[in-house]
Amino acid sequence: MKSMAVLLWLLILSAFHAVALAQQTQFDITLGSSLTPTDHSSWFSPSGYFAFGFYKQTNGYAVGISIVGMPNKTAVWRANRNSPVVPRNGVLLLTRDGRLIVKAGSREIPVINPSRAIASASMLDTGNFVIYDSDRNVIWQSFDHPTNTLLPGQHISAGQQLRSSASEADDSLGIFRLKMQDDGNLVQYPVNTADSAPHTYYSTGTNGVGNNVSLHLDDDGLLYLLNSTKSLKNLTKGGYPRERTIIYMMKIDADGIFRVYSHSLNQQNSSVIWSSTNDGCDPKGLCGFNSFCTNIDDQVKCLCLPGFNYLIPGNWSAGCERNFTTETCRLKESTSKYYAMRTVENTGWEDSTYIVLGGTTKEDCEQACLQDCNCEAALFKDRECRKQRLPLRGALSDD
Ligand SMILES: *[C@@H]1O[C@H](CO)[C@@H](O)[C@H](O)[C@H]1NC(C)=O
Ligand SMILES: *[C@@H]1O[C@H](CO)[C@@H](O)[C@H](O)[C@H]1NC(C)=O
Ligand SMILES: *[C@@H]1O[C@H](CO)[C@@H](O)[C@H](O)[C@H]1NC(C)=O
Ligand SMILES: *[C@@H]1O[C@H](CO)[C@@H](O)[C@H](O)[C@H]1NC(C)=O
Ligand SMILES: *[C@@H]1O[C@H](CO)[C@@H](O)[C@H](O)[C@H]1NC(C)=O
Ligand SMILES: *[C@@H]1O[C@H](CO)[C@@H](O)[C@H](O)[C@H]1NC(C)=O
Ligand SMILES: *[C@@H]1O[C@H](CO)[C@@H](O)[C@H](O)[C@H]1NC(C)=O
């Protein structure tokens, strides 16, 4: 009797021991660990819901964090968004001297640049990938370096911005940004513009409310602005079910709109629960020079002006170019045989007016443009004829 009891005790003890060991090896990523795109491609969080490592991307692999178990791997963070993808024979290494790098052939590319040598790393259940030094201080975490996505518990601080991806299939840098400004306003702009009103296409209108406002997402889908400790403005209602198998996230999508998604890991589906706009034509810069945006039955498209073709087919932001060579102005002046005006109704354009003629009719406006060597287009509105030079740029000012 007595010996059986002892045996049982020993068994239980060793079972505990095994669990503790498994946790350590599985969750604490130690120096000398490595991953490859095809075999052992990820380090998982304890729940198994998040993975850090390689994921498929265009014609290679990217390094990042994704939600596991969705039919399409959903990336929530990516390293080196403006570097080429990693080839099949790449290796991700946590080196013995404490660096996290990708080795591709003879090249070594840092994945992150922490301030001190790394001692270990961990993929947490929150979706945060954390790097520790030898005193187990956090020296880097993905939550502090958001790319295009916010997860519950993560925030964007004053001065930080998210950047959209190039396309749904390509997480490299895209053409839209969402900035948490120092003035307390949360604003969207196209890239390569100043942070100024004419370029804005979304704003919470909260400028002047504080100098340390941040954007937060909670685990019930509540997306809100916070100034130090005070909730300033709720963008979503929140109050969505809190379940382990439902993950909310906010993402600035490739189309320039930011949305809050709900991912159900059980059902393996996701849905949009909130969107910054319902008009796909809102994002400025979606359509490049000499093109304009149309949204018919939720089908968003950039169309070229008559007589223009896409500069790079499939790339709307590259805009359109004339599909004919211009005749000399003398010919144009002498006869309108070579030129005709075409009407495009109800479009908005950035003002590039060099002359305004008042009190005209649409016909007078057309004639005035045809007879002017410098005129390449004219905006006609409220009996005013505004002569334009090319290129025309899509609605950069609201009217
Ligand atoms: C997965 O991706 C394919 C192709 O991009 C798409 O057709 C499909 O709707 C996606 N499925 C989910 C659940 O997002
Ligand atoms: C937060 O906002 C309140 C007004 O809503 C303002 O009085 C306060 O100074 C702000 N705090 C900070 C730290 O900006
Ligand atoms: C700014 O707000 C964050 C919380 O959002 C807080 O941790 C930080 O201490 C604040 N900084 C200042 C300078 O008030
Ligand atoms: C936002 O919603 C939360 C939760 O419902 C609430 O506590 C908070 O007061 C709201 N903030 C504002 C500014 O309405
Ligand atoms: C997933 O699909 C189920 C059944 O169609 C639906 O009830 C649920 O709302 C969906 N969940 C999400 C997050 O889209
Ligand atoms: C130019 O484009 C127009 C349509 O926008 C088309 O009718 C015309 O044939 C094109 N011309 C050339 C030279 O491609
Ligand atoms: C589209 O064209 C723009 C401007 O030429 C360029 O900056 C951008 O990288 C292109 N995007 C893609 C996805 O090729």
SSE blueprint:
Blueprint: H1 2-27, E1 29-30, E2 34-35, E3 42-44, E4 50-57, E5 60-67, E6 74-78, E7 91-94, E8 100-104, E9 107-110, E10 120-123, E11 129-132, E12 138-141, E13 149-150, E14 155-156, E15 161-167, E16 170-180, E17 186-190, E18 202-203, E19 213-217, E20 223-227, E21 230-234, E22 246-252, E23 258-264, E24 269-275, E25 291-296, E26 299-304, E27 308-310, E28 320-322, H2 329-334, E29 353-357, H3 362-370, E30 377-381, E31 384-388
Antiparallel strand pairs: 1-10, 2-7, 3-4, 4-5, 5-6, 7-8, 8-9, 10-11, 11-12, 13-22, 14-19, 15-16, 16-17, 17-18, 19-20, 20-21, 22-23, 23-24, 25-26, 27-28, 29-31, 30-31
The structure holds 2-acetamido-2-deoxy-beta-D-glucopyranose (7 copies).
Residues 222, 224, 231-234, 238 line the site of one 2-acetamido-2-deoxy-beta-D-glucopyranose (NAG).
Protein name: Bulb-type lectin domain-containing protein
Domain Apple: 329-399
Domain Bulb-type lectin: 28-144
Features:
single chain; 399 residues; mainly beta; Agglutinin, subunit A; 3 domains; four-stranded antiparallel sheet; 31 strands; 10% helix; elongated; disordered N terminus; binds 2-acetamido-2-deoxy-beta-D-glucopyranose
